[in-house]
Design goal:
Number of helices: 8
Distance between the termini: 19 Å
Structural class: alpha/beta
Largest sheet: 7 strands, parallel
Helix content: 25-40%
Number of domains: 2
Radius of gyration: 19 Å
Number of strands: 9
Order of helices and strands: HEHEEEHHEHEEHEHHE
CATH topology of the largest domain: TIM Barrel
Strand content: 5-15%
CATH architecture of the largest domain: Alpha-Beta Barrel
Shape: globular
CATH class of the largest domain: Alpha Beta
């Protein structure tokens, strides 16, 4: 968090960026891998990035530099690990998080082996089975909804201006709408809902809640800037995508840059930088620019 605060002051503010998006700030499983941030253990604001005081200071410092703060936020799940101790010292087993959740607060869909999502053509499975083995919260229940809203409101009380809802596709939009209706303010919201051809759960179902991340844009830029030519990118308005006013777009993010699903800094012919420039210039959607680091393996 200290490094983000410094970046807001030295670069992001002077450069005119409106927001900075942070990694998830809650306590998570231990480990150096980037994805450990995405396995919550509790809603204590201590992560490998710093503690509550450092997080709050970062928000204040960024605001002073004219930069608002979006926190990556995980409503869908808790850990994939069977048991352990989080980075703030909280002990857990996969479906029992003392003082927060007990086994009755999770889904056990019974539709697939190990209760994991396999068939994305079944919306009930997408919304109630586990994403990659991560303990799936029963977001249709009153207790879970109130607990998630309590966490979000804690972030908002520290001055957080927006939330990125991780894995929103795996949560019924009615559940998300109920949770966000409990917020004490009206933050900017962007939701991770990845389009899948012919699948019943679509990005457009979530636009009444807030912005939705349009991954078809990411794929289109990868194709156009590497092999297809950019004439295909003249207009995105007639493709059936998320409407421009509700679309959050990006050349790459922390997932796609590692999975080969987008351009990244290793793309040939300066395609990555050119696509970033295109994204900032084109009127479709609200662009997000990734600030990342060099890495030699997926987990780095």
């Amino acid at each position: 968090w200290d490094s983000i605060a410094a970046e807001c002051t030295a670069f992001l503010g002077p450069a005119g960026y409106g927001f900075v998006q942070t990694s998830p700030p809650q306590e998570h499983v231990q480990g150096t891998q980037w994805w450990t941030d995405y396995q919550p253990v509790s809603y204590i604001l201590t992560s490998k990035r710093g503690d509550r005081t450092q997080f709050a200071n970062m928000v204040s410092t960024c605001h002073a530099a004219g930069v608002k703060v979006i926190a990556d936020t995980i409503f869908n799940h808790m850990t994939g690990s069977s048991s352990g101790t989080g980075v703030a010292g909280s002990s857990f087993t996969q479906y029992d998080y003392p003082g927060i959740y007990q086994p009755a607060d999770f889904h056990y869909c019974g539709l697939e082996p190990n209760n994991n999502i396999v068939n994305y053509d079944n919306e009930v499975e997408v919304w109630t089975c586990q994403l990659d083995g991560l303990a799936d919260l029963a977001t249709e229940t009153e207790y879970v909804r109130s607990r998630l809203a309590e966490y979000a409101n804690d972030l908002l009380s520290l001055g957080v201006d927006g939330l990125r809802l991780d894995a929103a596709k795996s949560i019924a939009y009615t559940d998300i709408a109920n949770i966000t209706s409990r917020f004490t303010s009206s933050p900017y919201i962007t939701q991770e809902v990845i389009y899948g051809e012919g699948q019943p759960v679509t990005p457009n179902e979530y636009v009444f809640i807030g912005d939705v991340q349009e991954f078809r844009y990411t794929s289109a830029l990868q194709i156009a800037f590497v092999r297809g030519g950019i004439s295909s990118l003249q207009s995105f308005d007639n493709l059936g995508w998320v409407p421009s006013a509700s679309a959050n777009v990006f050349v790459t993010n922390h997932d796609t840059e590692r999975g080969g699903d987008s351009l990244n800094s290793n793309s040939p012919s300066n395609a990555y930088t050119n696509a970033m420039i295109f994204s900032l210039a084109h009127p479709y959607g609200t662009p997000t620019i990734l600030s990342s680091y060099s890495f030699t393996d997926y987990d780095a």
